[in-house]
Amino acid sequence: MLNRLIRITKRIQKGSDLFVMGGYIFSIIYAVLIILPVYFVFVSAFKNNSQIILTPLALPAALDFSKFIQAQTNVHLLRAGLISAGITSGAMVLTLLLAFPAAYAVARIQTRLSTLVESIFSLGFLIPGLAILMPIYMMTAKAGLLYHPIALVILYPAFNLPLSMILLSGFMRKLPRELEESAVMDGGNVLQIIIHIFFPLCAPGILTVLVLNFIGIWNEYLFALILMDSDNRTIQLALALLRANQRTVDFGLIAAGVVVSMIPVYIVFIFFQDRIMSGMLAGALKE
Amino acid sequence: MNKKIFYITIALLVIASMVLTACGSAKPKGPVTLTIWHNWGPDDTKGVPLQSVFQDFMAANPNIIIKDEVYVDADIPLKVETASTSNQEPDLVFTVLFDGVLNWTDSGVSLPVNDLITQWGLDGKFTDVALANFTQADGKIRAFPLEGFTWPIWYNMKLFNQAGLDIPTTTDQLIADAQVFRDKGMGGPVIASGIDGMGAALFNLIVSSMMTDAETLQSFGNGDWTIPAAIAGIKLFVQLRDAGVFVDGVEGVDYASGGTRYFAGSVPMAHFGSWSYTDPAVSALAPDIKLGCFPLAAGSPWKHPVYYSGFTAKGIFITPNGGAKIDAVKRFIQFMYQPDMIARFVPAGMAPPLKSVNIDKSTLPPLVAAALDLPSICDVPMPLDTIVPAGVGTDLGRITQEAFAPGTTAEKILADLTAAYAAIK
Amino acid sequence: MIHSEKKIPIERRIFSNAEYGQRNARRRRVTFTFLVAPALVWFLSFMLWPLLNMFYISTTGWDSLNMPKKFIFLDNFVRMFHDPKVAISLHNTGIYLLAGILGVMPFAFMLGFFLSLRKPGYRILRTIFFSPAMLSIAALAMIFLGVYRPDGMINTLLNSVGLSGLARVWLANQATALGALIAIDIWGGIGFNSVLFFAALANLPKELYEAAMLDGAGYWTIMWKIAFPLMTDFIGLVTILQFLGILSGAAYQILLTGGGPGTATFTLGFYLYDQAFLSHRLGYSQALGVMIFFIGIVVIVLIRRITSRLSN
Q: pTM value?
């Protein structure tokens, strides 16, 4: 009997080990497929056009930072980065403030309005950005906010609400019902429940939504182009300008700009995932 | 602890951005400010001369301030049009005359400049070609012509000499040369970027080489692809392609990699414009390069090999907002179009739109100087920028891409072209 | 301390189960509205009028922003019906959707599950997998031109291992152009969605798996018999996201092929962009937008129906 149990356990272990091994193999192959292109962009920042095109994956001969300096002097990349950082953080915070309570309501409060509201937000995905370009420009001009980064801080949450709402409510539905009941027992009202219980527990979901918002706003081009002027350009606008005109391209220059623009994104992702992951695990252990 | 850092960082960033933008949006008071949008940034060879013109102008006109803003050239039309709907457009726009910009005069985004040319003493100063490029069918002149471009064929004489060949003057010679190059392992001699608009220009050139300007207007302008000359042009292109005149895989080559391969010295012929004359990658190869034009086929109505040149690369447009500051604009335009101001741009590869600009050839970069000889040895077919109707442009691009791919028949190309033009009727 | 039901005031029973009945339904609705209102108002102010505007403009013959609008009723839609390019874009978009969803979702789910097991190195893998989503348009253009060029990375690799017969002009070949673009979406989509799945699966208690393993189940079984059923709603959600992204997507076409060669990569999203920005037919482009809108609604409803049936 014991032997049989041991054999079954060993077979499961083998099956599980096979799974894990398979998982690792697939993951590593896929990871390489992702790392190679990113590496390509990274090393290109140190090369000239002909090296980039003829020997794309070769290591650069020397760490020549001239392209980075050129990118900065040509389009004031760092200032653009700062402006983008300000706009992005402002918009991210605003989106979370708006989306979190709404997602909670949709996910956890039993009322017929839930599906209606969720559908309204889903429609947001179907509106092509182009369709709203003109009306939004006019609204911004009338409000006197043209060329002011605040305009984007106010605008971007509207674009991000559908995704954030839907993802957050999706995550929240997974949590057990008892959470509210025990909080109610302890005498909490809505806001307290949201802030003290749900917020920490939804950490992976919040992290994901924050990172997605960050990326979406950081990489947004069309509205930043139309609503900002050259003094207030965002980092993507600055990047686009690295290409002097549509006919000549210095790939190394563009790569340098791209590398600079991607560093904050990576930092945000890595920073957040570590901090909030450990916070979440600590929370889970307490339960 | 982590939350605190997070909140503090965000607060700092938001504050920083507000401070920056507060500083950025301070506007000078008092003197007139001319807002000018262009794409000649610090990286562009014409950026430095432009800034010098601005500086000298402001020094000579202390009550006028120029606020110039640099944007990507492809974005400028959209920005101007959007801004125009709320009367927020800049005063002057430096942009290429192409596609949507063709509608600006009629839709009121820009003002016609016929009267201004006369009133400001510029009558007769512009070259005929420059003015013609900017004149609409109804006689209105759209803008002040600024940047002249040339778009020749770049022959790498070193490779030609290696193969023991001369520059071809007929397409039959070109086909024979192509065979020689291939036999020697050098691949097809002509590189073009089949995948983007730059390759389309070569397609247009080859097809137009079989047509008179009237016939080009009929076909490319009005969509009549049944005329024999147009059919001959398409057939010529297919014949050249099938004879191996282009490099292998030309349909997938992009402008940048085409340039890289050519400047690496491995391709005998390329079709590049004057914007590349001063490209740093050129300097090593420059002694070997001879600028010329595309050879003619039997039956062509032209007398000399053909190339594109014109002035649609950049014009200075005046908007209604600029019209409200007409005095300041007048001063600027008059300043800008002095021959020695225009002359500052010539070493960057720009052909001047004025008749009397003194150019000292010896001070010019080699290719820029060589390009000045082109008009005497080549013919210029009608450029397509101003005659292709809006709505067909992107279709043309896709059809050209297909045309470069082996296996596409002349019949298919003609059918696609006919359908594309029919679709907009 | 023991709280008996009778001692809890009515306001604090808001979130209890149905047994609390009608009285609380109104209370719930009030709280609901209060929580949802800011987001809803924000969203509607920026999206509602433009959406209505889109419907309105689709009935005009408007050429470009500064030309006059001519009201032409449903002419745009009639034109759409006869337009061969619409049929082509529907066809291409259909292929794109099929490949883009079937090629991404199963793998993303499995990868997300694997990540949620938190085996050593999962954090690094997660960052790597998310990288494609972090790349901006400029970076993507540069990368994939470098990958797909005739002398680019793929062909160089094929040549170096002796498979030069397989080398193609990927972006300019009728047969491979669409596939090349779809491959980019699959490349990025698997990684991106796997991180989303991780975030959802990470919330599941470990005990769930442990119990199953004690009963003799391996990871593969757990993945499909336990994690998958629990995630059906979320999978539906993520599929809707992926679907909508592909339906209205045009970025790679704009960057790399311009809809060509011929019409090989001509999709709905690109057609809309082309008509609005390149061909200057705003009215028609908004009509296309309306069509995309309704297709989107239909599919969202469909996917929701499927997932709710699956989870029952």
A: 0.85
Q: With CB atoms and an 8 Å threshold, state whether B394 touches C150.
A: no
Q: Are residues A165 and A40 in the same domain?
A: no
By CB neighbour count within 10 A (0-12 exposed, 13-18 middle, 19+ buried), where does C309 fall? Answer: exposed
**Strand B32-38, strand B92-95: pairing:** parallel
The verdict on A197 and A246 lying in the same domain is yes
Please judge whether C279 and B391 are an interchain contact, meaning their C-beta atoms are less than 8 angstroms apart.
yes
The predicted-structure confidence for B190-238, as pLDDT tens digits, reads as follows 998 888 878 899 999 999 999 999 999 999 999 999 999 999 999 999 9
Which tokens sit at C98?
């099929």
> Which residue, chain included where needed, has tokens 């004489």?
B157
For residue B4, is pLDDT > 70?
no
pLDDT at A283 over 50: no
Query: Regarding the domain with residue range C83-310, which homologous superfamily does it belong to in the CATH classification?
Result: MetI-like (1.10.3720.10)
Residue of chain B whose alpha carbon sits nearest to that of C174? B402
CB neighbour list of residue B41: distance below 8 Å, 6 or more residues apart: A74, A75, A241, A244, B47, B70
Q: Per the structure block, which two tokens stand in for A25? A: 């193999």
Q: Specify the CATH number for B29-150+310-357; select among 3.30.470.30, 3.30.420.40, 3.40.190.10, 3.40.50.300.
A: 3.40.190.10
**pLDDT score of B1 more than 70:** no
Please report, for chain C, the start and end positions of each structural domain, with discontinuous segments joined by +. Answer: 83-310
Compute CA distances A1 → C64, C210, C217, whole Å. Answer: 81, 22, 19
C45 vs A3: CA distance, rounded Å: 69
Residue A280 pLDDT: 46
The verdict on C279 touching B (C-beta cutoff 8 Å) is yes
Predicted complex ipTM exceeds 0.85? no
The whole domain housing A30 covers 2-44
Number of domains, chain A: 2
Of C28, C42, C127, the CB nearest to A111: C28
Taking an 8 Å cut-off on Cβ atoms, the answer to whether B100 and C279 are in contact is no
Assess whether A109 and A183 both reside in one domain.
Answer: yes
Residue bearing tokens 């999206």 = C47
For B72-82, how does the pLDDT look when each residue is reduced to its tens digit (9 = 90+)? 888 899 899 98
Q: Which CATH superfamily is domain B153-306+377-423 in?
A: Periplasmic binding protein-like II (3.40.190.10)
